[in-house]
Write a structure and sequence with these properties.
Number of helices: 11
Distance between the termini: 30 Å
Low-confidence stretches: 130-140, 358-362
Helix content: 25-40%
Structural class: alpha/beta
Mean pLDDT: 87
Order of helices and strands: EEHHEHEEHEHEHEHEHEHHH
Amino acid sequence: MKAHGLPEGAEVYARARVVKEGSQPTHTLTSYYRPEHVEGTRIVDPTPGPAGRGGGFRVLYDAGYEIDHMQETLFARIPTADEVQLLQLAPGEWVVELHRTTYTADGTVVEFAIGVHAATRFAWTYDFQGPRLSESGGRERVISAQVWADAQRIWDFQQMGHELRPCSVAIGLGSHDLGVADTTADLYHRGIMPLIVFTGATSRTTRDRMPRGEAEHYRERAIELGVPADAILVEPRAGNTGENIRFSRALLEEHQAAVSSVLLVSKPYEERRAYATARKLWPEVEWVSASAPMTLADYVDSIGDARLVIDMLAGAQQRLMIYPQQGFMLEQRVPEDVAAAYERLRDAGFISRLVADTAERK
């Protein structure tokens, strides 16, 4: 299920119910959960009725998944014949379909729900906090046009714009984003490289959604997309970009692979940071950067959390500016407008992915 970051056809638990006011149904609601989040809980109990006091959110909380925020999308449509009967709709009455995605603070999707509501029997009321106009340093609740412009400038700068060409091997850098595996598989099928290394353990943002490790989940995804298993090597220990490069190099040497050029596949907003790290740690080979060809808006839509994406953009830019002094990567000239964009994002409160300037690399 795409909302959970799962491949098409992956198994999930679904809990469906019909909600009534008195004897009259108002809507249906079906919640979908990843098995590793709810296995052994009341949510998977087939007994009809609520999943205990507090419902599914309480079950998730007790399992260690505290709800942080949600995203809802609503749209009106003509009902199906089954919905007309189930909701006892009057002739010509439409339904409103609700899609709700529920996240923890680290961006993990813990529930995706679809509701179908009788349009004349249901109303939605939303209470919005307006933009914060004080200078207290708190984050604005509404993303301003300036923030979007700054994020776009950093997004553009982080991409290297390299022309694709055949390479000895591709290294796919592990993360929360399975799009890296998709892009790597596509480039393999286009004949860009004969061999793939997927590298990465888990982090606080991936340990729940990728319990077998980022590299292993990438391998499984690539095989689903038709890449032969014998064309993939897995490096499962790396916890940062430097280790991605060092451990992948050691793995390739162990397999006696002849490497003169490497296609470095990363998330779109980390191309430059990854390239500067790779050039520092393995200067003997030629590096070509690649990522999914998508716009910032498309990437935000794929992740489903604009603030998280902007936080990550700020974190990637900060590392690009401070890590060369710590010996982790080659110096990259940062244009003044890019540095200014980063500073504005930092001052606007997009700081959850920042590190202390003197911190060890993460």
